[in-house]
Amino acid sequence: MSPAKITFVVNRPQLMRIVSTGDQNKDGCLDFNEFTKYLKEHEMKLLLTFKSLDRNNDGHIDATEIQQALADLGMNVSREGALKILQSMDIDGTMMVDWNEFREHFLLYPAFNLEEIIRYWKHSSILDIGDSLSIPDEFTEEEKRSDEWWKQLVAGAAAGAVSRTGTAPLDRLKVFMQVHSTKTNKISLIGGFRQMIVEGGLTSLWRGNGINVLKIAPETAIKFMAYEQYKKLLTSDGKKIETHKRFMAGSLAGATAQTTIYPMEVLKTRLTLRKTGQYAGMFDCAKKILRKEGVIAFYKGYIPNLIGIIPYAGIDLAVYETLKNTWLSYHAKDSPNPGVLVLLGCGTISSTCGQLASYPLALVRTRMQAKASLDVSDQPSMSSLLRTIVAKDGFFGLYRGILPNFMKVIPAVSISYVVYEYMKTGLGISK
């Protein structure tokens, strides 16, 4: 008789991780010996985690200890929220969790420490709406030691490329309205599309998309590497990082990436707004700008772009943390894992709030990029351009083009998610 084997359904990420961790002979199954060994090792890791949570060494975990542990990881939870987390593990109704209750709750759960549990709350890297100002995603030490981190970056870049291509017409309309729409020359959604199609045909709706896709890879790589370095500078061990330090590291990483690839942003704006026959392509555009306007033209609008990173990333992160903590306070009793729909919802709402705060700066940046071909004496500064827009078009003039920008969020997120999931499957990422 062949030895008994335990086979898990492979479309369950948590079970797949248990199999991949315990499957020593790599046959896709766990035999009795492998499963027993996995449970013993996993139990030891859980015991260490339990002892680290039990700060007063009384053999029990209470709500205060849960609050303190989560606070150390940069996640502030109310006492009510901590009690609900406690209740999800409490079997005997004492509102304290002993080792046996903790062990029973997590023994068949692949997370073996608090960081692993909280990893489900990471800010999702798949939400690419074409505005690359968000906080970079984080990877666990285990992911960094394996090849999973770069596979996730590749999957995210591919998802972003398809998403941006799918929503490129709305992105071009946004830029078109930012630059050309005024109080006296209002451009509607239908009118804007009609003008672009009449001028250059249906394919003109995708002008500037090539370089918008091309800049994903270098920007993502620079942002990720810079973020890791800034985290090390801001923390003692480079691993546990509080929310405010994560925001600082993310903003600095975003600024570093934007500084490096900013000339590509200028090229994207020029190519998006170009008329038929104006440029033969990206390199022709760069050559003509360099010859006529000099190197400085590639950094027009850089200051408002850099300033815009702070409100976008800060509000994006703050709203995301608030939404996920609210979910946790109401639903942690059922599961510590919010699920993909909750994460997508939190990410979409937080990103939208971040855009509302930073959009005026994005509009000023785009106008400065577009006006870089004017004489030096006619070059507007950021402050003068803001005053001019408000004087001519009122406060809401700072939000020209925001409607198509909002319209592209849901399809962009949806496309990103679908492509990301397919890429993860193709690359063998069991997350």
Distance between the termini: 35 Å
Q: How confident is the prediction overall: mean pLDDT?
A: 78
SS element count, helices: 19
Global structural class:
mainly alpha
Described by strand count, sense and barrel closure, the largest sheet is: 2 strands, antiparallel
Rounded Rg: 25 Å
Percent of sequence in beta strands: under 5%
Low-confidence segments, ≥5 residues, pLDDT <50?
Answer: 1-12
Number of strands: 4
Strand order of the largest sheet: 1-2
Helix content: 55-70%
Indicate the overall shape.
elongated
Question: H/E series, N to C?
Answer: EHEHEHHEHHHHHHHHHHHHHHH
Describe the structure.
Helix content is 65%, strand content 2%. The protein contains 19 helices and 4 strands. The strands form 2 sheets. A two-stranded antiparallel sheet has the order 1-2. Strands 3-4 form a two-stranded antiparallel sheet. The protein is elongated and about 70 Å long.
Topology:
Elements: E1 5-6, H1 13-22, E2 30-31, H2 32-53, E3 60-61, H3 63-72, H4 79-89, E4 97-98, H5 99-106, H6 114-118, H7 141-145, H8 148-166, H9 168-180, H10 189-200, H11 209-214, H12 216-234, H13 243-273, H14 282-293, H15 302-331, H16 340-370, H17 382-393, H18 402-407, H19 409-427
Antiparallel strand pairs: 1-2, 3-4
Helix pairs in contact: 2-5, 3-4, 4-15, 8-12, 8-19, 9-10, 12-13, 13-15, 15-16
Short description:
By secondary structure, this protein is mainly alpha-helical.
Keywords:
elongated; 431 residues; two-stranded antiparallel sheet; 65% helix; mainly alpha; 19 helices
